[in-house]
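User: Please fill in residues for this 260-position structure.
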C-alpha cells in the first residue's frame, strides 16, 4: 500500500505518541509504519537527516523530529492550530514545548531503569511487528542491551533522571496551579499540552496507551509506589485528564507491521 501520509514510528515510543497526537489533533489521516529499532537509522538518516523516530512522510515531504513535525503541520494544515497566534502565548508554548521535550528523555530513562529486563517490555516493543518467533527471540536481548547503552540506563543517570522528571511535573503544577482541568497556556489545548502529556504518559500509563501492558500487580514495587505518589499530584491527574478529554483517537488508515 502506498499511502500519501505515513508516520514512521516505534510502537512504544512516547515521542512517536506525541506525533500521533499532533496528527490526530489536526484530524489528518495517516498510516503507521513500524521500523525496526537499529536498522531504522538507515532510513531516517538517508531520508530525513535524523537518527530518531518519529519521521513523517507527507506526499513528497519527509520531516524528522516531533517538534519539526508540529511546526510543519501548523504551517501546512493551519486548522486546529497547535501554537496560538497571540505573541505572548505563542512564546510560552514554544518555550514549554522545548522544556517538556527535554524532560521526555528523563521520563524514558527512569522508566527503563525500572522496567528494562522485564520480558513484557520487549514483548510490548516487538509484538506489533508480528515477526517470526525465532527472529524476535534473537532481536530481544540485542535490543535490550542497545536501549540500555543508547539511553544510559544505569544507576546514576537513572537517579538523576528521577530528579529531572520531577522538575517537569513541578512545572506542570506551576502552570495549572493545582487545577488538572486547566491547560498549560490559555484556554485550549496547545502544542505545550500535547508535548507534556504524551511525554509523561508512560509514567502514568493511561488506559489504551501502549504503556498499559504491565498490569499494576506485576509492576516492580518501586514503580508502583512512585507511580502512586506521582499520580496523587495534580500534575499526574492533569496527564490522565488530558488523555481522557483531549486525546481523541485519529484516523489510522492501516497499521503496517514493518519495513526494513
Ligand atoms: N527529539 C526527537 C526525539 C525522538 C527520540 O528520542 N526517539 C527515540 C524513540 S523514543 C528514537 O528514535 N531512538 C532511536 C535512536 O536514537 O536510534 C523528537 O522529538 O522526535
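Assistant: Residues filled in for all 260 positions:
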Amino acid at each position: 500500500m502506498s499511502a500519501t501520509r505515513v508516520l514512521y514510528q516505534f510502537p512504544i515510543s512516547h515521542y512517536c505518541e506525541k506525533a500521533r497526537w499532533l496528527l490526530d489533533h489536526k484530524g489528518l489521516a495517516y498510516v503507521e509504519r513500524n521500523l525496526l529499532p537499529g536498522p531504522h537509522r538507515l532510513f531516517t538518516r538517508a531520508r530525513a537527516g535524523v537518527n530518531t523516530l518519529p519521521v513523517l512522510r507527507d506526499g513528497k515531504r519527509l520531516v524528522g523530529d516531533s517538534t519539526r513535525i508540529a511546526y510543519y503541520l501548523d504551517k501546512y494544515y493551519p486548522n486546529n492550530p497547535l501554537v496560538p497566534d497571540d505573541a505572548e502565548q505563542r512564546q510560552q508554548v514554544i518555550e514549554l514545548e522545548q522544556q517538556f521535550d527535554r524532560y521526555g528523555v528523563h521520563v524514558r530513562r527512569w522508566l527503563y531503569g525500572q522496567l528494562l529486563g522485564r520480558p513484557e517490555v520487549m514483548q510490548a516493543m516487538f509484538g506489533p511487528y508480528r515477526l517470526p518467533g525465532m527472529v524476535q527471540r534473537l532481536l530481544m536481548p540485542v535490543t535490550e542491551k542497545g536501549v540500555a547503552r543508547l539511553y544510559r540506563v544505569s544507576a546514576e543517570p537513572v537517579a538523576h533522571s528521577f530528579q529531572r522528571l520531577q522538575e517537569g511535573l513541578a512545572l506542570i503544577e506551576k502552570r495549572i496551579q493545582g487545577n488538572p482541568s486547566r491547560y498549560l497556556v490559555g484556554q485550549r489545548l496547545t502544542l505545550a499540552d500535547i508535548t507534556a502529556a504524551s511525554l509523561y504518559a508512560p509514567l502514568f500509563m493511561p488506559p489504551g496507551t501502549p504503556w498499559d501492558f504491565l498490569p499494576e500487580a506485576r509492576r516492580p514495587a518501586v514503580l508502583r509506589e512512585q507511580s502512586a505518589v506521582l499520580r496523587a499530584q495534580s500534575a499526574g491527574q492533569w496527564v490522565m485528564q488530558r488523555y481522557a478529554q483531549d486525546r481523541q483517537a485519529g484516523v489510522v488508515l492501516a497499521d503496517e507491521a514493518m519495513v526494513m
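For context: The first helix runs from residue 14 to 26.
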